[in-house]
């Protein structure tokens, strides 16, 4: 049984985020700073993903001034406190193979230095000697990470300004090993 580490290729990996509110939704992208997956005998056994919170982009707001204002708000203490916490991370602590190409990854998700155990399914799109590609979706309750702005759990009478607690991260990650 051979253990191989695959390094995430940030430029070939993508995370799309979606946040919902009563009156609609917003979406965008956020970048991966670095990370890896550890495979033993071709099966995922561990890994780590570090997200660059300062790379968050909003795609659905096309007015430049409004987009800049919204991005500044996401960077503020109301949301991700990017100046204090420039990264978020997920460290795999346990894996379970569900089918030949589907895994359940469980681990510690850290946002704003607050860590909670979470899990989600990933589908392996490619798994060769030198390359690994996978897709998945992680749904996060933002209030667990001290992101309470306009949450119905903490504020009353928000009406149509309420922002739902869950946000989605849909990701496609490509990683490679230097093994020849």
From TrEMBL:
<feature type="domain" description="Lipid/polyisoprenoid-binding YceI-like">
    <location>
        <begin position="5"/>
        <end position="176"/>
    </location>
</feature>
<protein>
    <submittedName>
        <fullName>YceI family protein</fullName>
    </submittedName>
</protein>
<dbReference type="InterPro" id="IPR036761">
    <property type="entry name" value="TTHA0802/YceI-like_sf"/>
</dbReference>
<dbReference type="InterPro" id="IPR007372">
    <property type="entry name" value="Lipid/polyisoprenoid-bd_YceI"/>
</dbReference>
<dbReference type="Pfam" id="PF04264">
    <property type="entry name" value="YceI"/>
</dbReference>
């Amino acid at each position: 049984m051979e253990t191989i580490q695959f390094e995430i290729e940030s430029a070939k990996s993508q995370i799309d985020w979606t946040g919902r509110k009563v009156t609609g939704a917003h979406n965008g992208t956020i970048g991966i700073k670095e990370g890896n997956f550890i495979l033993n005998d071709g099966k995922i056994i561990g890994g780590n993903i570090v997200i660059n919170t300062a790379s968050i982009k909003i795609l659905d707001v096309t007015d430049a001034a409004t987009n800049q204002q919204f991005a500044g708000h996401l960077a503020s203490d109301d949301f991700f406190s990017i100046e204090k916490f420039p990264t978020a991370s997920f460290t795999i602590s346990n894996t379970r193979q569900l089918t030949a190409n589907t895994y359940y990854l469980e681990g510690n998700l850290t946002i704003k230095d607050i860590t909670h155990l979470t899990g989600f399914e990933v589908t392996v799109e490619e798994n060769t000697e030198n390359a690994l590609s996978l897709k998945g979706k992680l749904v996060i309750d933002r209030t667990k990470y001290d992101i309470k702005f306009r949450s119905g759990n903490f504020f009353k009478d928000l009406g149509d300004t309420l922002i739902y607690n869950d946000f989605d991260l849909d990701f496609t990650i490509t990683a490679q090993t230097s093994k020849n």
